[in-house]
Amino acid sequence: MDWHSAIKGFQAYLKLERSLSGNSIEAYTRDIEKLYQYAEIQPEKLNPERVTLTHLRHFIEWVNELGMIPSSQARILSGIKSFYKYLLMEDLIKIDPSELLESPKIQRKLPDTLSINEINLMIDAIDVSKPEGGRNKAILEVLYGCGLRVSELTELKLSNLYLDIEFIKVVGKGSKERLVPIGGSAVKALKIWIENIRVHVPIKKGEEDLVFLNRRGARLSRVYIFMIIKSLTEVTGINKVISPHTFRHSFATHLVEGGADLRAVQEMLGHESITTTEIYTHLDREYLKGTIIQYHPRS
User: Fold this and answer.
1) How large is the average pLDDT for residues 178-196?
2) Predicted confidence (pLDDT) per residue in 9-29, tens digit
3) Predicted local distance difference test score (pLDDT) of residue 200
4) Which of 96, 186, 107 is nearest to 145 (CA)?
5) What is the distance between the alpha carbons of residues 235 and 56, in angstroms, rounded to a whole number?
């Protein structure tokens, strides 16, 4: 068994059996290709079935020497474990060398967030007198109002909007669908975009059901959404590194700070495990301190 055929089979497994998106499959492939690159520089011919636990440990030392941070190492290990589970399942190997491989210990980084005031500043900075301004306002309102991933936003469909009952259907990771509530501000911005602006856009064939389009009627890329946000960051003078995901982090943090049930936030974010959602329970340290000073009887 050579690396190319093993990787090709793994890609087919991820697509057909695990129903992963193209982006996820690409990420897994890059991780396995790093192991392949390492195998190629070894003195002995190291194909997938000849890799041992010792080889994998040396591989981790190798990527560490390349300067890869622990969180990236952990992600690569996750990909390698999935790869060898696939090979074992297909009976292409008899022993899984990654079974006893330990991931590097990593500190969970608290996500950057925007304050409510900063979010309002960015939305208010949009020039809604321009057609793209109405669209961009709807984009930010939906990103923050529903906590969407940027890929979920760019793939959002008109047929999945239930604005009369203030819900939208989102297709998330692994093509899993979830219903997410949408608030009044986002509903209003969406209706202005859809009913007053989008109707005048010449829509490209095959894109008719997509909510957000560029001026040529084609779908928006994730990079384009990032550029919209980067431009607004510069206009408002907010001194933070902000991406579309920052709005998702802010959505979750503000809900948890406001007392929302963690299970409800998990459902809205589309997290498989609540441990992923628990990162948002960090809250702001000053917020916690202020709460104690204000409410504790002996403060």
Assistant:
1) 93
2) 999 999 988 888 888 899 899
3) 94
4) 186
5) 48
pLDDT one-digit tens code per residue, 101-134: 876 655 555 567 899 999 999 999 999 999 999 9
Q: Taking the model in full, what pTM does it have? A: 0.60
> Does position 53 have pLDDT exceeding 70, yes or no?
yes
Distance CA(77)–CA(96), nearest Å, equals: 13
Q: Which residues are catalytic?
A: 149, 173, 245, 248, 271, 280
Q: Are the C-beta atoms of residues 155 and 210 closer than 8 Å to each other?
A: yes
List beta partners, residue 169.
179
**What residues contact 252, with CB distance under 8 A and at least 6 apart?**
147, 265, 269, 277, 280
Nearest to 3 by CA among 43, 30, 41, 32: 32
Q: What is the pLDDT of residue 40?
A: 87
For residue range 215-252, what is the model confidence (pLDDT) as tens digits? 999 999 989 999 999 999 999 999 888 889 889 888 88
pLDDT at 280: 62
| Phi-psi category of residue 8: left, alpha or beta, with phi > 0 → left and psi -120 to 50 → alpha | alpha
